[in-house]
Amino acid sequence: MRSENIIVQKYGGSSVANIERIKRVARRVVLYKTKGHDLVVVVSALGDTTDELLELAYGISKMPPERELDMLMSTGEQVSAALLAMAIHKLGYEAISFTGAQAGIITDGVHTKARIIDMGTDRIHKELESGKIVIIAGFQGINVDQEITTLGRGGSDITAVALAKVLNAGMCEIYTDVEGVYTSDPRVVKDARKLDQISYEEMHELASAGAQVMQARSIEAASKYNVPLHIRSSFSYKEGTYITKEAKSMENVLISGVTVNKNEAKITICDVPDKPGVAAKIFKAIAKENINVDMIIQNVSRTAKGKAKKALSTDLSFTVPGGDLLKTMKVTRAIAKEARAGGVIQNNNIAKVSVVGVGMRSHSGVAARMFDVLAKARVNIEMISTSEIKISCVVLRKHADKAVIALHKEFELGKKK
Amino acid sequence: MRSENIIVQKYGGSSVANIERIKRVARRVVLYKTKGHDLVVVVSALGDTTDELLELAYGISKMPPERELDMLMSTGEQVSAALLAMAIHKLGYEAISFTGAQAGIITDGVHTKARIIDMGTDRIHKELESGKIVIIAGFQGINVDQEITTLGRGGSDITAVALAKVLNAGMCEIYTDVEGVYTSDPRVVKDARKLDQISYEEMHELASAGAQVMQARSIEAASKYNVPLHIRSSFSYKEGTYITKEAKSMENVLISGVTVNKNEAKITICDVPDKPGVAAKIFKAIAKENINVDMIIQNVSRTAKGKAKKALSTDLSFTVPGGDLLKTMKVTRAIAKEARAGGVIQNNNIAKVSVVGVGMRSHSGVAARMFDVLAKARVNIEMISTSEIKISCVVLRKHADKAVIALHKEFELGKKK
């Protein structure tokens, strides 16, 4: 078997939302099979299944044990894998579905946020060689103690990328309900344009800045192992967006996209005593809970109210995923108290607006243009962070769309270059 | 750990039909835990989950591959196991859920109808010893190749009985939505009475004759390994019906119950050439499909219509579970043709009415009384079969309730003895 002949396809929840859509996916999979490819198909849970299961769990407990959440949530993908296998059989082709455990996906065992540490390929190769289409339940694996673990948000993408890597697949296709990667969210920006190609690095920044199409960690993994990605729609046969190493043609592009992430929350610890070790303590405790902190800023030291002039203190702000806010507040409050800080404030009404582009490397002045545009649009900037190819600003959520539209226009992203 | 201290509890689908009921089950489990017992709890899928999953499968294919059906159906019990573990945690007790695979339930690998061939207990003992309540997804196991297999109808009962046996549990409690085993179906017979105890043998006959409360094969297994059973309601704390070896006090009882099974279908092969081997061929082919034939009758040989006088032929009738009718018809038609039989007729409008009682062993005349009662009620008998402690008659389905009521009255089952 030539491994370039292997295509890994991943279908997200909206692509397998109901029986009709599962049948459509089956037809597409079979089409590729008849073209001579060996197919390994990763599926997410049916449409709303994940939400329905979470509703059951949170109907029972506000803090369900994460081990049991994994037991619960992993069933969603198992259901769609079995149904897709049935739909392919119905078309007269052989297919076999596997759970993460059966496929040999071994994880580090961190419940609800596991990382893949090993992948078996014997079983998959055996089934491919016998002519079968292999369907794998995404988002899950087991640890060495046979405990079921899920891979966190976008976990099915990770499953697909990891499989494409170990099988040395010719292509890893990520099927979704949009036609590819856009310069911005078409629901917000009317002239947002589909990109034909984009580099791993830019896609990674776009994803971590809020582009929903694929999770940042999956792109990071694809980049690391040079897995060619093709993000496309399961509702059409049009080409989507290819994600590859930086291409020559991309170099002329200053900015590739403007994104917004409305799913972050800001936490501010007031009057943190300005001495070494306090911040470290806080972020160590948060990391221990497996919470990803995104932006961190610290105001210049000032005299704390009501304290002696010599006792300097500072305000420390950071952002975390909205879903982790409760857990983060709990940890932060405990440590703030211990460190004799002033108080902990949460802000759930923020959004992060980012511009991303490899062109920033060689062109200065992007940040200045961005701040200028936001000022003209009367959008106040609460926090700023930058990377080599990205600038992000936290603004009030109600200003987010206005900011995105203004930036998309400023950098002329609607025009084909 | 004293093993008599272990209680295995099995909760059926109606007992865990929704969040409120799962919470109620959790409270009951915890109550037993606080009384000092070690709890191993087997759960079925939530209420209608099984039907919902089947609807998805049959929405995709009329003949879904059984391997994939097992992948699909096994998720139902995994969901309830995880949710019950969460509900117990919420009450402040430690619980851990296992799939059949994780619990070490090894089966023979026959999809949708597997039999347990081995059970691991190390993991369960370890968790019990650490003080945890162990929750196990019923109805499922894996074969030696890690293929998920389900145990067929009533499979969660089998899981519970097998666990009670290997753990040498003091009691195996089967929770259901009725208060125990009744002399007949209370929905049909108004003065049907709950039995305080019943022998394995009688319960086995009642179950195979149509009593819904527990599957015959689970009772057979309990009897074989002398696992004490207590069938009771999850909606009250009243004692239910104990199922044990034949007790002294039971000997005076002539008949314990009257049952009806409306879920069988009758198949008749007309004009089967009356020579050795034909019947064997038919039932061998049906057995190969894992279909359980219940009653078989063969009419006396007669001259086949339109054939030479010397060519004798016979009509052969048998019953199978209604759900297997389609599959059975297919097999039967093929063999009937091959054997040059006349034709195959199916009848889906039958019911099997049975009287069961260990007292029959020492008292003759029960059959005569039964036929007499049915004749007086103007119920025609289509087929008859008997065992040492049971007499079953196939009647038209529309006459079934009338027959049951008349028999329940004749044998005075409404009166406490």
UniProtKB/TrEMBL annotation, chains A, B:
Listed Pfam families: AA_kinase, ACT_9
Binding of substrate, residues: 50, 77
Residues the record lists as binding ATP: 10-13, 176-177, 182, 187
Keywords: Amino-acid biosynthesis, ATP-binding, Kinase, Lysine biosynthesis, Nucleotide-binding, Transferase
One of the record's GO molecular function terms: aspartate kinase activity
Coiled-coil segments: none
Pathway: Amino-acid biosynthesis; L-lysine biosynthesis via DAP pathway; (S)-tetrahydrodipicolinate from L-aspartate: step 1/4; Amino-acid biosynthesis; L-methionine biosynthesis via de novo pathway; L-homoserine from L-aspartate: step 1/3; Amino-acid biosynthesis; L-threonine biosynthesis; L-threonine from L-aspartate: step 1/5
Transmembrane segments: none
One cellular-component annotation, GO: cytosol
Class of this enzyme: transferase
InterPro entries: AceGlu_kinase-like_sf, ACT-like_dom_sf, ACT_Aspartokinase, ACT_dom, AKii-LysC-BS, Asp/Glu/Uridylate_kinase, Asp_kin_monofn, Asp_kinase
Record SUPFAM superfamilies: ACT-like, Carbamate kinase-like
Annotated EC: 2.7.2.4
ACT domain: residues covered: 267-352, 355-417
GO biological process: homoserine biosynthetic process; lysine biosynthetic process via diaminopimelate; threonine biosynthetic process
The reaction(s) this protein catalyses: L-aspartate + ATP = 4-phospho-L-aspartate + ADP
PANTHER family the record matches: ASPARTATE KINASE (PTHR21499), ASPARTOKINASE (PTHR21499:SF3)
NCBIfam families assigned: asp_kin_monofn, asp_kinases, PRK06635.1-2, PRK06635.1-4
Entry similarity comment: Belongs to the aspartokinase family.
Protein name: Aspartokinase
Organism: Candidatus Aquitaenariimonas noxiae
Lineage: Bacteria, Pseudomonadati, Candidatus Omnitrophota, Candidatus Aquitaenariimonas
